[in-house]
Amino acid sequence: MSLESVKAFLSEHAPDIAVIEPESSTATVELAAATFGVQPGQIAKTLSLRVGEKRFLLVARGDARLDNAKAKRAFGGKVSMLGAEEVAAVTGHPVGGVCPFGLAQPLPVYCDARLKDFAEVLPAAGSTHSAVRLTPERLAVLSNAEWVDVCRDPEEA
After folding, report:
1. Within a domain: residue 155?
2. CB atoms within 10 A of CB 39
3. Does the pLDDT at position 99 exceed 60?
């Protein structure tokens, strides 16, 4: 269902973007980078977060870590991760396949500025065996994301 919702979203909003479905798992940054032959930073991981009752998604480069102080300033409070069941319920995607496309319910989406370090990034596509290739700018436009600076530089992580 989740992969199908992403395919339906892309069919409507970006028919030129194909979902890639390798046989090997892409559920972690390391697995995805090895599968697609790219740097771990090019894997656009989607974090499901909350501040208080507000739930939202943050898309960041795969080798970046959230900077708690920056995130608190940007999002207006202490940031915490959603649990796996809540992630599946609000996104419609399983952990390891979460992306900002084809969501079960509308959520605010943010992209960390460090994604722009690459000409092409690969977010998951709704399953643990899928991804898409696109520019960071196109990712932000398609997901109606706001750019933020909330991660540490990879060498600091």
Report:
1. no
2. 14
3. yes
